[in-house]
From TrEMBL:
Belongs to the Gfo/Idh/MocA family. GO terms for molecular function: nucleotide binding; oxidoreductase activity. Keywords: NAD, Oxidoreductase. This is Myo-inositol 2-dehydrogenase/D-chiro-inositol 1-dehydrogenase. It holds the Pfam family GFO_IDH_MocA. Residues 127-245 form the GFO/IDH/MocA-like oxidoreductase domain. Residues 1-119 form the Gfo/Idh/MocA-like oxidoreductase N-terminal domain. It comes from Marihabitans asiaticum. Coiled coil: none annotated.
Amino acid sequence: MRIGLIGLGRIGAVHARTLADLELVEELVVTDPVAPAVDAVLASTAKATAVADPSTLLDSGVDGVVIAAATNAHADLVRAAVAKGVPAFCEKPIAASIDEAVAVQRAVAGSSVPVQIGYPRRFDPAFVAAREAVRSGALGHVHTVRSTTLDPAPPPPAYLAVSGGIFRDCAVHDFDAVRWVTGQEVVEVYATGAVDPSAAPDMYAAHGDVTTATTLLSLSDGTIGVVSNTRTNAAGYDVRLEVHGVQDAVAAGLDDGLPLRSTAKGVTWPAGPAHSFFMDRLAEAFRVELGTFCEVAAGRAENPCTVEDAMGTAWTAEAATLSLREGRPVRITPDGLA
């Protein structure tokens, strides 16, 4: 297969390596306005060729395209791919704003061109096992879900400026994991946040953003979700999910790379070393996710995360953003936020 890749920044560079390692991918066609980023990919794999811009890439006969450009470019690139009949994988979020996400949802509705939204935890073996435990009924009624994403360091200022904020950029992974694992939708959100005084507070204030946030989720069956996020966890990259039922409880992410130490005497777990970032913690999930997209693009697999599905996560992120700004619970209704 010939797969296109638009955007070779932080996540795009990871995807380039992952796609190049897939047997299904015979050629990788890449584009990015930053020449050194393109040169680095071309130097790393013989499978890659470069084109000048996204329009040229979409006209080059690729079998599918991976969109890893900045968040504010997602909506236009998804629409362009669908208009050209090119199956698309788009990194989260769907768009920089909920209005743009709704516009994309309408634009692709009824189209036979698949658009897969990137939420890699759906492909992490431990998260898959947690979902299976819930679906099997082994946990009984699930009363609490806790999802955590603690980044070891803030993103670059240029990335932060177009990220859409901590809920659209970081917490969306947790919101999606809670929805996907439980099979429930979020109906109410209350979010709070703070800025680490050592982490360039003026920069975050300029974007109405925070470095640390906690979001309380009310799910459609009464389950309570608690989502914790920070951009300043120097101990390492911490991604976990706990699912607590009346009969049993399970957790994903409790491995030897967990950047957390016990204060109990004699306890040496986790053995370490700690996960340093998403590239090592989720490497296998990215491989399976992009391999699945290739199968979707070839018409051999069902789309595991459609735009319609991902809209539930988009609305949750929007509700959390509004809740933080206005300091109140926000309900998600069929008509929008209330």
